[in-house]
Amino acid sequence: MADDNNEIELSVEELRQRYEAEKLKRIRPEGTAQWKNLKETNAKLDQDPFVEPGFTRDAIIEETTAVIVGGGFGGMLTAIDLTKRGIQDFRIVEKAGDFGGTWYWNRYPGCMCDVESYTYLPLLEETGYMPTERYASATEIFEYTQLMGRTFDLYPHSLFQTEVTDAVWNDETRRWLVTTSRGDQLSTRFLVLAGGILHKPKLPGIQGIEGFAGKAFHTSRWDYTFTGGSATTPMDKLADKRVGIIGTGATAVQAVPQLAKYAKELFVFQRTPSAVGERGQRPTDAEWFKNQKPGWQEERILNFTHCVTGVQPEVDLVQDGWTEVMWENTQKFPESEDEAAALERSDFMTMEKIRRRVDTIVEDAETADKLKAYWGKNCKRVCFHDDYLPAFNRPNVHLVDTNGQGVEEITKNGPVVDGVEYPVDLLIYASGFEINNDLNERLGFDPKGRDGVSLSERWSQGSHTLHGVLASGFPNMLLISLTQGAFGTNFVHMIAEAAKQLGFIIDECESNGIEAIEPEEAAEEEWLMVLYGAAAGGGLYVQTCTPGYYNSELQAPDAKAARNLVYAGSLLEWAGYLEQWRNNPELPGVKLERANAS
Predict the structure, then answer these.
(1) What is the mean pLDDT of residues 168-193?
(2) With 90 as the cut, is the pLDDT of residue 83 above it?
């Protein structure tokens, strides 16, 4: 990779001080409690705008091998893996009206994936699908999940517009009883929790938020009946509207340029600016795609993950903003003071290059300065977009920077910042999703394992898992989650590795008369030590960061938070632990109950 930072001069000490000052002004005493549940704040805002109201169906009472909670990529890939293994006796329970997960809900204008489609969309070789562009739009991704559902015959297995209300383990029958909002009673051997992390929207806890008199919605519940148009057509009802959008993260970076085109006036309320590099969108070269050799996608996925985790392979197959920005792993634990200084300087240089890009695009110097991100490249998800920064050159677009404090209050007319009220007709919340709260809260139900102990009780002082996949006290419950699992720039890569593990476990149990599987507590503690070891460098790094969901809003860590961590090493290292476990015929660290056991 070429080093474009050689000509950049910077003062390390001045940047340290600036980063620290920006961090301190954004720390809030309430930590993660500053965010509110969308449904609890305003149930109307949480309604599905993409289905016809009044759906009903008869309740289903049946026995099945697996109940998969979630119809996003996690649930779908697990179901597909089971299908390939000859296990087709399963149900998928999904709150939404179709497959897609986060790509079902996020249909806001401009929405697309920031990881290139050739590595992000799974199973391209098996479906025979060619993405239309390098970075697929949300519309295309949603349609692709539907194609996956048809290709692998998942629709007959699926219960849409249905929420799990309870799941209870029965020690005598060695089965889970899953009940739903539609009155279903599903007796199942395996409970797969693939509820995702980007599906349950959250709102900022701003005073007066319920009293706003205009139209309001979260970006994942976009109301095109109000804005007009669609994700692919002009929003023709905004021409006489003053629009406010709260949030300047990855969602807003994509929505703002579209709103800027159609709104009479647009007010962008910013607490923390995003780092925005060049995306370089382009159509797929059909000839290039056609000439790819069998196995090309797996090779490309692995290469991308190597590039963004500091492995620095000889060839960068992707060559995009991600592989450039993340080429060097500046979050690793340094082995010497010299290495620590070099890593810090490299990080500063990468971010300085992104900051200086703002000056080349945004015409107003004051606005440009407010759009510059003063945090490390691993503190928040870096964004890549070609139209966000130019939007602030439009006369109808106004950046309302809150100096790190956020919106003070919302009156019936609109947001208030620094004592100034900004009346708007439409208020859009680009405030993201619940990630740092407990797993059962994100799922919407609280599984009950052995002796009726709920997951929230068992994990009240922190999570207990083996590899983030199995949990003691909850036999035959399998997880795809960040909780003690992995995280990756290409999140679907992590999901695919987890789905492979879940499929193996279910198949192994089915093939060998294993009626119940759960980890030994000692093995969970050993895994926790692995997590601690991997977190050594990252733990120091995130404490220098501005608050966000990566570091739980810099909330003071407690015993619970100390266990609820993500594997901080490479995604491929985590996948290696799973593969090593699968290849050991002893299945170390788990307790097995066989059919002939008394």
Answers:
(1) 98
(2) yes
Which of the four pLDDT bands, split at 50, 70 and 90, describes residue 298?
Answer: very high
CB 321 within 8 A of CB 134: no
Strand 415-417 versus strand 383-384 pairing type: unpaired
**Biggest CA-to-CA distance, the chain:** 77
Q: Is the predicted pLDDT of residue 342 greater than 70, yes or no?
A: yes
Q: Where are the domains of the chain?
A: 12-41+201-279+337-429, 61-199+435-518+568-594
Element (H, E) at 505: helix 491-511
Separation CA 222–CA 259 (nearest Å): 12
Per-residue pLDDT reduced to its tens digit, 407-418: 999 999 999 999
Tokens encoding 465: 């898992």
Q: Which residues pair with 167 in a beta bridge?
A: 178
Query: Which residues are 66's β-sheet partners?
Result: 90, 190
The set of residues, in sequence order, having a beta carbon less than 8 Å from that of 394 and lying 6+ positions away, is 260
Calpha distance 451→40 (Å, rounded): 30
User: What is d(CA 368, CA 376) in angstroms, rounded to the nearest whole number?
Assistant: 19
CB 119 within 8 Å of CB 318 = yes
Q: How far apart are CA 17 and CA 37, in angstroms?
A: 35
Which residue reads 């382009």 in tokens? 282
- CA R_g for the chain: 24
CATH fold group of domain 61-199+435-518+568-594: FAD/NAD(P)-binding domain (3.50.50)
Kindly give, in sequence order, each residue whose CB lies less than 8 Å from that of residue 141, ignoring residues fewer than 6 positions away. 100, 103, 112, 113, 120, 121
Neighbours of 78 (CB within 10 A): 29
Asked if 546 and 23 touch (Cβ cutoff 8 Å), the reply is: yes
Structure confidence by residue, pLDDT tens digits, 429-479:
999 887 767 888 888 899 999 999 999 999 999 999 999 999 999 999 999
Classify domain 12-41+201-279+337-429 by CATH architecture: 3-Layer(bba) Sandwich (3.50)
3-class SS at 596?
Answer: coil
Total-model pTM: 0.94
When pLDDT is averaged across residues 283-307 and rounded to a whole number, the result is 97
Separation of alpha carbons 104 and 96, rounded Å: 7
Alpha carbon 10 to its chain centroid, in Å, reads 33
Specify burial of residue 130 (Cβ count, 10 A radius: 0-12, 13-18, 19+). middle
CA distances from 492 to 102, 315, 376, 550 (A): 12, 22, 24, 18
User: Are 12-41+201-279+337-429 and 61-199+435-518+568-594 in the same CATH fold?
Assistant: yes
Give me the half-sphere count of Cα atoms (radius 13 Å) on the Cβ side of residue 251.
Answer: 23
Pairing state between β 175-180 and 514-519? unpaired
pLDDT for 509 equals 97
Where helices occur in 50-171 by DSSP H, the ranges are 73-84, 102-105, 117-120, 124-127, 138-151
Q: What's the CA gap between 473 and 470, in Å, rounded?
A: 10
pLDDT of residue 291: 97
Between CA 371 and CA 358 the distance in angstroms is 7
CA-to-CA distance for 136 and 284, rounded, in angstroms? 10
Please check the confidence at residue 2 and state whether its pLDDT lies above 50: no
Neighbours of 337 (CB within 10 A): 8
Looking at residue 1, its pLDDT comes to 44
C-beta atoms surrounding 283 within 10 Å = 9
Contacts of 414 (CB under 8 A, 6+ apart): 212, 214, 244, 421, 422, 423, 424, 427
